[in-house]
Amino acid sequence: MPTYTPPLRDMQFVLHEVFKVTDEFKAMPAHAEVDADTINAVLEEAGKFAAGVAFPLNISGDTEGCTLNQQTHEVTTPKGFKEAYAQYVEGGWAALSCDTAYGGQGLPFVMNQCLYEMLNSANQAWTMYPGLSHGAYEALHAHGTDEQKKLYLPKLTSGEWTGTMCLTEPHCGTDLGLLRTKAEPQADGTYKITGNKIFISAGEHNFTSNIVHLVLARLPDAPKGSKGISLFVVPKFKVNADGSLGERNPIYCTGLEHKMGIHGNATAQIAIDGAIGTLVGEPNKGLAAMFVMMNAARLGVGNQSLGLTEVAFQNALAYAKDRIQMRSLSGTKAKDKEADPIIVHPDVRKMLLTAKAYAEGARALQIFCTLLLDKAHSHPDEKVRKDSDELVALLTPIVKAFITDNGHIATNACMQVFGGHGFIKEWGMEQFVRDNRINMIYEGTNTVQSLDLLGRKVLGNNGATLKKFGKLVGQLVAEEGVNEKMAEFINPIAYLGDQMTKFTTEIGFRGFQNPDEVGAAAVDYLRVAGHLVFGYMFARMAQVALREIAAGNTDPFYQAKLQTARFYFAKLFPEVHTLMRTARAGSKVLMDTDAALA
Amino acid sequence: MPTYTPPLRDMQFVLHEVFKVTDEFKAMPAHAEVDADTINAVLEEAGKFAAGVAFPLNISGDTEGCTLNQQTHEVTTPKGFKEAYAQYVEGGWAALSCDTAYGGQGLPFVMNQCLYEMLNSANQAWTMYPGLSHGAYEALHAHGTDEQKKLYLPKLTSGEWTGTMCLTEPHCGTDLGLLRTKAEPQADGTYKITGNKIFISAGEHNFTSNIVHLVLARLPDAPKGSKGISLFVVPKFKVNADGSLGERNPIYCTGLEHKMGIHGNATAQIAIDGAIGTLVGEPNKGLAAMFVMMNAARLGVGNQSLGLTEVAFQNALAYAKDRIQMRSLSGTKAKDKEADPIIVHPDVRKMLLTAKAYAEGARALQIFCTLLLDKAHSHPDEKVRKDSDELVALLTPIVKAFITDNGHIATNACMQVFGGHGFIKEWGMEQFVRDNRINMIYEGTNTVQSLDLLGRKVLGNNGATLKKFGKLVGQLVAEEGVNEKMAEFINPIAYLGDQMTKFTTEIGFRGFQNPDEVGAAAVDYLRVAGHLVFGYMFARMAQVALREIAAGNTDPFYQAKLQTARFYFAKLFPEVHTLMRTARAGSKVLMDTDAALA
């Protein structure tokens, strides 16, 4: 059976030593009082919940799955899931970074980020119930009317109710412009909604007395395509003006998907049969309102893979130290044993370090992004807010696609460390692989992310936002370029930062002549950008570690950071050399293939 | 629900047009009469069995799995599996390439190869029952006594009985030297065997009246480690001298593993409680005897991933043509539809072509290797036999590891084409991913394969065998180097062939100083070698296609071959640039990481 230890020290390193978050908070009136002790105490408690409550339900949740009663349309979640959620609500975790106006604790998003990293390590399927709910909270908080906020936000904040996002339909996933669900205005200002949704995560369950569905639908006079989509809030039980529950709304779970992974989460088919809802935001602007939720969800999906990468690494490391098999190529290491622990083998170490590096790079990037969200939300200086918002928009597709693809590589590598035992369910490793696999797909496939990055976020403004990130890299290079000890960490990102400009210009020029060139290069481009960003994160972490060591700190933690960074630059980062070649190989070999793809 | 069409034309292209197998067979007395019509007719029938009988049981077999009756130790396989096996035996498929002396049809191994490619596409879990059995046949054929052959081979040939290979124990997989199962000599010349085995594929089932277990065990006086292992044949039911069944031997299935994939195959825990067996081959030389089976199995595992890559490709291609979603970046393609079929998107084509190229490269390599096996087995010229044997030994770890890793990439890419639907069991795509995942692990993990390649097969004889393969590449380069139309296919392999020599020398030199350098480079090295081999296969296929086109053949099949080869060299082959860098990055960043891996 797998184990999980919350990586508190690693989080604290990134929070306090690398990004010095409390210094940043001091500039934000809402968070000026949040000090390191508070952060650490909260994360410690969060870790106890994740490891002690959510994690023990991970394998059993996978084995049991969810069941639908076709008569009542009610869903039973795996044993213990409901009780764990009650504990979560009781502990106030749902409210952690919610608005104090609605009963939230108002703590910075970075703390929610760390909470969720641990919850995802512990149990991705379970964590999606509160996770989706928090997305619904954010969309209503940003776009709801005062009445909607009053009615729904306190209950979503406390966790008394949960929320969902109902986007996908059988014939449309990526292309929401095709959606058919209809909303008919009623005399009382509400809307009667009819349609079929699929793939609704946490779409039905037995945790709470009500579920607040956010539903995309079309008004009768709506323009075709994505400009004719509106957002509605459609509760499972109608809500009276005093907040009490009214009659059952005809929005029913009619089926649950049989999936590769995240079995503990109810992926619902939802039939909406004239359910009554109210409009969120402006008519036909539903997609924009939903994107508040979607952007948060994309960062959240990266965080899911960070969680799985970390827990997979921890277990593979433990196994590699424990399992004895063969002797070291460079001579017997464990003379007292029949064979050496497999951690002596170079390729086993490579698999472990791959996961470790991808976890540490992801953790730094996720916290970096969430701190930007805190600034975008709470900083008094408008320019800081705007810059932060732009930077996080640039980084969002990288977080989503790069971290989830890396999660695929890492969880598979960790499973491989176990040999045949990795394939056996009881060891828990193959579940990490299966659960991670959806992260590369939902909330916009990783191909969609790459087009968002290259097409919209980079070429869409002539590389202006990318240059802002490049400036950060440039500052670090300028700052540390003369430091001989930093050369091994600085040179690669200086090189790639330089290459990136030429590379982007070249792809942009080609794309101007033929847009399929953008589509052909985008996935490779995103991974190159991902390595530039991770390279920057590792250089920042190495900088801190080197300073501590220079100051006489002998904690091996800092040596570990250097070793992981060295490994990253030597064995993972060089992927960019192939990626820039294959991106430059262009679209012709893909598009001139009518015979091959006949 | 997925579909499967046997790729007969593709097989025939490789068999008849690329490798001209019937010309080769003419030189082998045993196969001199095997003509193209015979081959094609047999493969057509084989395809009907695979697509019509085995394939419809693939998803249901995954859903049902196998069940063990703990009282009787009998295993029930999924519905239809037993009947399909009866049809297989009835059709004579088990006997296809078996020795005529024992009732086999004596056809070349390449035909068995193509049969098994199709069976693996259709149903890997089911195919492992006859597949393992064939391995047992081969080991007994090579090392059994006359009596053992007389007793077991006719029944294994016909398929009336099946066989297994019982190697792994709970504490030893890769490191068979640690195995503990004991064999005590009895007065009558038999052995009483006691021990526990795990991970025994097709280890128990309800297909046949008897199961012939080949078991590795230690004699009482055996030396420690891998030099003290002997091989025994231990039937489920003892066999009387007249071939009739005697009493039940105490070799019992005591548990079935719960696995990520291949649910339809019974992965058995086997308790051997004083079962009676006879020695196969010489005492303490069991590992060598078992390696007959293992080498065949390794080629067979590559073939499993070839099968899965092909069927995953076929279904992803069909879906990509059918599913409409978004418009092409370069302008609307399907004006009569609400959106374009997703095959217009460059990255969808890239995912499809990745699978197609990896299937076609693998098919060529598998047939190339099996033809070498036919030569090694049936060619009258001893030098040809020896050269063929050496070359297939070199290529075996590449087939096993490169093709299964590519299968992982390809099945995941094909699943990704389906978006969210790829994650849903009913579509069948995620099963291909799960089933393929074991191929990277069993019969020696892919890391073990890489050490076998670099350490034993390449550096072990100072690159002599590698040079033999290099000679084939050199011949093709010399032959086509002046052909302008071949340049795009020849230049990359000429370049890599050249690099490979330096690369090998460099790693060899480092490994001489520090053996961990070999362990650190091996996995990257194997993939580089894999691309050299695949590059050679694609150049050979392109050569044939170009000649046909030059001769006026307008069949788009040949354009398709060129397009796939172009895609391969532009988008997949360039991986070597990163791999040679990361291999050269050495072992230090892996081994000097005690703090990071504390």
UniProtKB/TrEMBL annotation, chains A, B:
UniProt cofactor(s): FAD
Domain Acyl-CoA dehydrogenase/oxidase N-terminal: 82-160
Reaction catalysed by this enzyme: 3-(methylsulfanyl)propanoyl-CoA + oxidized [electron-transfer flavoprotein] + H(+) = 3-(methylsulfanyl)acryloyl-CoA + reduced [electron-transfer flavoprotein]
Location of the Acetyl-CoA dehydrogenase-like C-terminal domain: 473-593
Protein name (database record): 3-methylmercaptopropionyl-CoA dehydrogenase
Signal peptide feature range: none
SUPFAM superfamilies assigned: Acyl-CoA dehydrogenase C-terminal domain-like, Acyl-CoA dehydrogenase NM domain-like
Function description: Involved in the assimilation of dimethylsulphoniopropionate (DMSP), an important compound in the fixation of carbon in marine phytoplankton, by mediating the conversion of 3-(methylthio)propanoyl-CoA (MMPA-CoA) to 3-(methylthio)acryloyl-CoA (MTA-CoA).
Acyl-CoA dehydrogenase/oxidase C-terminal domain segment(s): 284-451
Phylogenetic lineage: Bacteria, Pseudomonadati, Pseudomonadota, Betaproteobacteria, Burkholderiales
